Structure prediction request, 522 residues.
Amino acid sequence: MTRFRLLPFLLSALVALGATTPIRVGVSGWTTLNPLLLSRDTDEEAVDLLFDRLVTIDAQGHFIPELLQSWEVLDGGREVLLHLRPGMTWQDGSPIQAADLVFTWKMLRLPQVRAINDTVPGIRSMDSLTAEGPLTVRIRLARPRGTLMSDLYNFIPVPRKYYAMGPHPASQPVNFAPVGSGPYRVAGTATRQEVRLERWDGYRGPHPGRWPAFDLVNTDPIKDTRPLLMDGRLHICLVGPLTQYLVRHGAIAGGRLKAYAAPQAAFNAFFLNCDPRRSILGDVRLRQALAEMVPWEELSRGRELFGTRLATSFWSPESWAYDPTPRPLPKLARAAALLDEAGWHLGTDGLRHDARGRILDLVAYEESDAGPRSITHMLVARAAKIGVRIEIRPVSFDALGAIAARHEGDLWSYGWTEGLDPNDDSPLFTREGLASGANVSGYVNPEVDHLFDEGQHTLDPEARKRIYLRIAGIIWRDRPVIPLTYNLSRYVANAALQGVGFNPLGQFFAYWPGMRGWTLAQ
Prediction:
């Protein structure tokens, strides 16, 4: 009789134990937990649990209040009043105040911060922010702007007590010991390899977290993570197309794993060095020729099985700035003609030379783990057929970004995640981005500078769309970047994980409910 009386107690204890099991998320690297210094989209996976935005979006992409209770647009769009929710506090218990928003705006404008995070051009360019009482901020704008809601979305305030950025912001202790405003806070010591986030009982905002804790674990998506997913050491992680395909079709895991896929507003690309002082690709004809060498046949082979999408515009189909204009497929014959036109002729040694006797040699950088079947290796093989020699130099992801920012080499292979508004991507192509280091290509075009400025300050949505379509056409012609394939978010999750969804950009974070709505089935 005794053991039967114990059974209900044991069952309840097991349920309670399961309820405290953290949801373990495999993340392919992050650099910081500091909202001021975001440089990768993976940084936001943790930051979005630790901090509230001024406004966020719902699953359909509509803007909804978060830290703000309301806002007012005045004087034809030249002034905006922001009203914070009363009773909100930072995780140290101090009140969230208007002065914190003004402080955050000032920090985001610092050159040393912009050198790391230059993806919030709208916030930085606001003419002034002034605190009017503890819960009201007045924004003054010289001109109305169509990017206002996206700017507020990208605005993640931090407490002024802890986040003053010195000359070396990347090395500050607060970067991995955050004091946030969101429903979760760091438990123990956070590193670039693992961080435990536990639900914060003091959260009074509108978007709480449902599950008690998360573990974020730095995971290599190239390696086979199925054993980790099967036994619960991971509950979800990014995977390769073959793994996702096999799970989706029930070929492995016997229903214990679930596959997810969503079109993402992101692409893999070659970024090209447009600076004629640093690279022969300063000649637009050579950049156009390189675009004709893209091995589209190899890229398109995965379309039927894996949903690979060839890129035909800088902005992806998930963006309202997408340009659907049909584009001709790359052809080596056109590449050869462009090279001849630019004065690079095929020599008896099988290589192309110019009138000065220089060989058409290029240096390409890519991530070390890209492997011998990478798109860069395919480009090298295709270019060699028409006498172009490309040397590949593999480096770490962090080194790749630093090398590109210094404009070393001729091209760099990596991905780009687009912003919620196309103007968020302006630092890639403008003089302002060149000054901050975000314009890694060194691309200079006064017309593009003017169009981005015009697009930021145009209110009519259709007029704005026409502006960004013009920009997309110029970028496609001038080739500071060659988008290759639009990304597809491919994840595999333990079947116990519930509530996984994606926002219109193909992300499972940075919207409501996002990760905050996840639970584990008992």
In short: Confidence is low (pLDDT under 50) at residues 1-18. The first strand starts at residue 23 and ends at 27. The chain has two domains: 21-213, 265-487.
